[in-house]
Design a protein that fits this description.
Layout: H1 9-20, H2 26-33, H3 37-50, E1 69-77, H4 82-90, E2 95-100, E3 107-113, H5 116-127, E4 132-139, H6 150-157
Antiparallel strand pairs: 1-3, 1-4, 2-3
Helix pairs in contact: 1-2, 1-6, 2-3
Length: about 160
């Protein structure tokens, strides 16, 4: 669930320290961010509670699990079935993320697969979901910019 509270410059400094050393102790984070240990503990707890910090899952590379192919499946859905389609997509292990969009396409579905045949199977599973009207699959050829948040954290920390 996205955070409804904004991260302040102090939180941003703490998160930058955590990004640099993900396994750092609270004491090490306190030293790196210039905060007390108790402040670090309280702020990390608040960031977890508000949903400002994402799960550890984001750091696991699907290729290391045997899923080196990534693709995006644009999906058109009968509007009355959007919630049911989302639930069905969540039940497919190869579906990493689903975004609702404006425009002609309703959903952008990020999937992974073991190989081309496996991608065909996953795309077929998506198309078989009731109320999915049409899909189009685009294979990721290479990642040019990986997921990152540090530039935004640096900007926020500088405020």
């Amino acid at each position: 669930m996205p955070s409804s509270e904004r991260i302040d410059p102090t939180d941003a400094r703490l998160l930058l320290a955590l990004a640099d050393q993900p396994r750092a102790t609270t004491v090490a984070l306190a030293e790196a961010s210039g905060l007390s240990r108790n402040t670090v503990q309280a702020r990390l707890a608040a960031l977890d509670r508000t949903g400002a910090v994402d799960s550890f899952e984001r750091r696991v590379d699907p290729a290391a699990l045997g899923y080196p192919l990534a693709a995006f499946v644009t999906t058109q859905v009968a509007q009355r079935g959007l919630d049911d389609v989302a639930k069905a997509l969540a039940a497919i292990p190869e579906v990493l993320q689903v975004h609702g969009l404006t425009g002609d396409t309703d959903l952008l579905v990020h999937v992974v697969a073991a190989d081309a045949d496996d991608l065909y199977r996953v795309a077929g599973q998506i198309l078989d979901i009731p109320d999915v009207e049409r899909t189009s699959t685009a294979l990721v050829m290479r990642r040019l910019v990986d997921y990152r948040i540090a530039p935004l954290l640096r900007r926020t920390a500088a405020r």
